[in-house]
């Protein structure tokens, strides 16, 4: 029997927004070495311009209005208070689908994607492909309060999501995700296979390692090239992950206290991981960038969000002998998602039924290319609906 969740609406106290503007006004700016552009991090002039707009013109209340158009709820699941969007599908037999977000994102990543999945007929597709869409905020992200004890890792979150979906009346469901959402979807496929119709990913967990022991073929030349490129990527671009996985609490004092520091930390990743040719505002308008940063600021959750990197090091996605994600899996490969393994590497541990090379898009597929992602999700799950 489905449980009743508490309806939720976003309304940030005006004093919090006033404090934000005052902090922006009092920013103590660093210097920079001339001519380095983005090679050493986010350029000073870029952050100054965005911060000035954030202080003087950005309208958080408009963001709240947009968020509150979506049906939101909060429910306590195994002791954790979880915020989630729950959009009922418009079709003859909507299929339940849980979508997981990543870092430095939030449920806001899915704002444009959800209507395409819940109401496909209203967006030029078939009503037969409708989904009941559930988008939870990861514990410690946005309006899901932080955990008070250690151990809130992707395995634990997968257990929470499985319980949440049961509480909502869905004994079986599909899962979709990129970034941490892909890691949690993988854990759902591993630990709750009887509950899963299938999983659809637009990212493969960074800690993923298939079993390569006796009886398994060694890496191919293509796979070896991927492993070398992944090592190079983490060496050149992975400083953020290493800090967040090892000393997240130390970093938190700066990001929790300085809105400009938080802005720079997040916007660097938006630019670096999106398919934007170095111009982040060509893909993410400044109001969208600041909506994400402001959500972290007003909820005070950057530290708790970063802690997930530390927690996940305890449970890497390393497969043992005979271990495999046996539920059907679909992969949408966006060209600027890096590092992304070849299909053969993924098939060593996943039951890949569909692999689609997308024409454009990067790490934030739901925001960058919601139509492409929605189409791939519909097409992957379509033949699985009869067994739902």
Attribute tags:
388 residues, alpha/beta, Rossmann fold, 15 helices, 15% strand
What does this structure look like?
The protein is of the alpha/beta class and 388 residues long. It has a single domain, classed as 3-Layer(aba) Sandwich (Rossmann fold), CATH 3.40.50. Helix content is 41%, strand content 15%. It contains 15 helices and nine strands. A nine-stranded mixed beta sheet has the order 1-2-3-5-4-6-7-8-9, with helices on both faces. Strand 4 (95-100), helix 4 and strand 5 form a beta-alpha-beta unit. Helix 10 (259-273) packs across helix 11. It is globular and about 60 Å long.
Helix vs. strand class = alpha/beta
Q: Looking across the biggest beta sheet, what order are the strands in?
A: 1-2-3-5-4-6-7-8-9
The span between the termini is 18 Å
- Treating each run of at least 4 consecutive H or I residues as one helix, how many helices? 15
What name does the CATH topology carry? Rossmann fold
Shape: globular
Any low-confidence stretches, pLDDT <50, length ≥5? none
CATH class: Alpha Beta
What portion of residues is helical? 40-55%
CATH level 4 superfamily? Alpha/Beta hydrolase fold, catalytic domain
Overall radius of gyration: 20 Å
Instruction: Say how many strands there are.
Output: 9
């Amino acid at each position: 029997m489905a449980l009743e969740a508490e309806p939720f609406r976003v309304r940030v106290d005006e004093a919090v927004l006033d404090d934000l503007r005052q902090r922006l006004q009092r920013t103590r700016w660093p210097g920079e070495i001339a001519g380095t552009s983005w090679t050493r991090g986010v350029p000073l002039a870029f952050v100054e311009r965005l911060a000035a707009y954030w202080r003087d013109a950005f309208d958080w209340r408009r963001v709240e209005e947009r968020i509150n158009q979506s049906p939101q709820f909060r429910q306590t699941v195994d002791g954790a208070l979880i915020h989630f969007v729950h959009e009922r599908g418009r079709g003859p037999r909507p299929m339940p689908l849980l979508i997981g977000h990543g870092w430095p994102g939030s449920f806001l990543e899915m704002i444009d994607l959800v209507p395409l999945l819940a109401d496909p007929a209203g967006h030029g597709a078939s009503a037969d492909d409708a989904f009941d869409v559930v988008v939870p905020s990861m514990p410690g992200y946005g309006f899901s309060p932080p955990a008070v004890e250690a151990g809130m890792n992707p395995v634990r979150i997968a257990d929470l999501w499985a319980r949440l979906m049961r509480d909502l009346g869905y004994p079986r469901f599909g899962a979709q995700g990129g970034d941490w959402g892909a890691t949690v979807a993988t854990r759902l496929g591993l630990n709750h296979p009887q509950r899963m119709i299938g999983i659809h990913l637009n990212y493969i967990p960074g800690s993923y390692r298939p079993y390569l022991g006796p009886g398994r073929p060694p890496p191919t030349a293509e796979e070896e090239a991927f492993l070398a490129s992944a090592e190079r990527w983490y060496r050149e671009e992975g400083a953020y992950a290493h800090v967040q996985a090892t000393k997240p609490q130390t970093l938190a004092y700066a990001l929790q206290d300085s809105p400009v520091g938080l802005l720079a930390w997040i916007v660097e990743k938006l630019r670096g991981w999106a398919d934007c040719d170095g111009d982040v505002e060509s893909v993410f308008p400044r109001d969208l960038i600041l909506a994400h940063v402001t959500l972290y600021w007003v909820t005070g959750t950057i530290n708790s969000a970063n802690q997930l990197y530390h927690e996940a090091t305890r449970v890497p996605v390393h497969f043992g002998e005979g271990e495999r994600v046996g539920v059907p899996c679909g992969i949408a490969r966006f060209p600027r998602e890096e590092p992304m393994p070849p299909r053969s590497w993924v098939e060593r541990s996943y039951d890949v039924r569909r692999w689609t090379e997308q024409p454009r898009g990067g790490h934030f597929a739901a925001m960058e290319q919601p139509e492409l992602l929605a189409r791939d999700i519909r097409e992957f799950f379509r033949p699985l609906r009869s067994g739902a």
